[in-house]
Amino acid sequence: MAQGGGTEQKKEQQPEVNHFDGVKRGLSVKLLLLTIIFIMIAEILIFVPSMANFRNTWLRTHLDNAEAASIVYLDIANERLSDDAAMKLLETAQANTIAFRLEGRSQLLATSGTLTEIVEHIDLANATPFSSITSAMGMLYMPSDAQYRVFDATRSIGGEIELVQEMKYIQAALWKYARNILFLSLLISVFAAALVYLALYRLIVLPIIRISSNMDAFSKEPENAALIYQPSGRGDEIGVAESRLTFLQTDLRKTLKQKQHLADLGLAVAKINHDLRNILASAQLFSDRLTSLPDPTVQRFAPKLIRTIDRAVDYTKSVIDYGKAVEAPPERRNLLLRSVAEDVREALGLDQGSEIRWQANIDDMLEINGDPEQVFRVLMNLCRNAHQAMRDMHDEDREHLLCVSAEQSDEGTAIRVKDTGPGIPEHIQPKLFNAFQASTKAGGTGLGMTIAAELVRAHGGTIDIEKTDADGTIFKIFMPHNGAE
Ligand SMILES: Nc1ncnc2c1ncn2[C@@H]1O[C@H](COP(=O)(O)OP(=O)(O)OP(=O)(O)O)[C@@H](O)[C@H]1O
Ligand SMILES: [Mg+2]
Predict the structure, then answer these.
(1) Which of 32, 138, 431, 452 would give a disulfide with 437, using CB separation of 3.0 to 4.6 Å?
(2) What is the DSSP letter of 225?
(3) C-alpha distances in angstroms, 101 versus 85, 98, 199, 429?
C-alpha cells in the first residue's frame, strides 16, 4: 500500500536547551571589564607625564621658596647669616644646602654640613620631558637619605639658585601624588565604565537578547505567525539585522507552508492511488474475460483496453516512486518512435473523424534509445496539453492540427510537438516546468510539464519551448544517442 509523507511524519524533537543564559551575562561582564581596563590604560598614559610635571613643579616651588626666604634674610643680615637663621632658612626650603651663583661667583648661603654623595644633578632650565619622566620614576625608588642637587635661574635677583635636598621630601610628595592619581583614576574608570556599560547594554546587549530569544521561540514553533520578529525600526546595523531576521522568518514560514501543502497532497494522492489500484485490478479482471468473446469488434478493442489498463496500473505504482520525489531510472532499449507516437494518438482517442487532425512526421524505422513507458509519458503529456489547448479554444474556423515530428542527427534525435492552439500564456512560461505552479486549467494540477521535463532529463535530454504565440506552440525535445544523466 502506498503511503504518503505529510502530516503523518513525526516532527523532529528539538532538545530543550537555553542557549542564551550564560552568554548574556558573559557579554555584559566582558564589556564592563574591558571598559575599566581601557580607561586604566588611558589613565596610565596620562599618569606618567603628570608625575614628571609634578616633580618639576615641586622642585621649582622649593627653589622659589628658598629664593624668597633668602632675599628676606639677606636683607636683614646683610649677607651674613647667623647659624640660627641659616637653619631656619634650610628648614623652610627643606634643603641641606642653599647657594647662589651671581655674576659667575658661587656664594654659599646656608648649609647644614650634612655632606653625603650627591646622586643626581638636576638642571631644571634644561630638563627634557623624557629626562623629567625617568628622573621622577627613579626618585620613587631611591634611598630616602640620598641627596640630589637642583638648580635653575632665580626669579628676581639674576644668576642661578641651587639647592641640595634629601630624597625623602620629594619622594613622599611623589608617592602621595601617585596614590591620589591612582585613586582618582579608579574612580573615573569605574564611573565611566558604568556609563559605557549601561549604554552598550541598552544599545547592543538587550537587542541581542531580544533577537536571540525570538529566534529560540520561533525555531520551536515556526508556523506561528505571532512569533515573527517585529523590528524596532532602528537605522543602524542592529536594525538591519532585525529586518533581515523578519524577512528570513517570513520566508521560512512561507516555505514551510508550501512543504506542508505538498506533504498533505502527497498523502491524499497516496490514498486515492491505493483505492484506484483496487478498482483497476477489477477492471483488469473484466477486460481479461472480454478477450474470450468471439465478437470481432470486442476482439479488436480488447487488447488495447487491456494495455491501457496495464499502463494505468503501472502509473499507480509509479505514484509511489513520485511520492519519493524521484522517478525510477529509465530502462532503456531501442524503440520505434513512430509506434510510441501511435500509442499516444490512440490514448488521446484521435482518429479520422476527430476535430483535431493528427500528423506524425516520423520515419517508420527511426529508433531512439529510451524507456518506452517514460518516452510515452513525455509525448502523452505534451500532446494532451496541445489537445486540451486546442479543444478549449472553441474556434471552429481554425484548423486544429497536432503534429509530432522527429529528425535524427549525429548527436541525437530532435522531437517536435506542434499545435495550432492559442499559445502558452506569457506569465506562466518562466515557471512552466515547476511543479504545481503553471496550471491555468480547472482540474489541472500543473504537474504534466514537470514530469515530462524530469523524464527527458533522466534520459540526458533537454526540453524547451521552441515557439509559442497566438498561432500555436512548438515544443522541442532533444534526446542524445546513449544519453545519460
Ligand atoms: N501546447 C500548449 N498550448 C497552450 N498552453 C499550454 C500548452 N502546454 C501547456 N500549456 C499551459 O501550461 C500549463 C501547465 O501545463 P501542465 O501540463 O504542467 O499542467 P496542466 O496541464 O495544467 O495539468 P496536468 O498536471 O493535469 O497536466 C497548462 O495549464 C497550460 O495553460
Ligand atoms: Mg498537462
Answers:
(1) 431
(2) G
(3) 20, 10, 60, 106
Helix (H) or strand (E) segment spanning residue 176? helix 167-200
Residue matched to cell numbers 537605522 = 235
The pLDDT value given to residue 325: 52
Task: Tell me what pLDDT residue 79 has.
Answer: 59
| Contacts within 8 Å (CB) and 24+ apart, 390-395 | 390/356, 390/419, 390/420, 390/421, 391/355, 391/356, 392/441, 393/421, 393/422
Closest protein CA for atom 26 of ligand 1: 444
Ligand 1: which of 380, 385, 426 to mutate, judged by most atoms within 8 Å of the beta carbon? Answer: 385
Question: How far apart, in whole angstroms, are the C-alpha atoms of residue 175 and residue 380?
Answer: 100
Tell whether 476 and 386 lie within a shared domain: yes
Domain tally, the chain: 3
| Domain carrying residue 393 | 329-480
Within a domain: residue 203? no
Ligand 1 site residues, Cβ closer than 6 angstroms? 381, 385-386, 389, 419, 421, 423-424, 428, 432, 438-441, 444-449, 473
Q: What is the mean pLDDT of residues 329-355?
A: 90
Q: Whose CA is nearest to atom 8 of ligand 1?
A: 385
Out of 326, 360, 392, pick the residue that ends a domain: 326
Report d(CA 339, CA 346) in Å as an integer.
11
Domain end point (choices 306, 326, 346): 326
pLDDT at 10 over 60: no
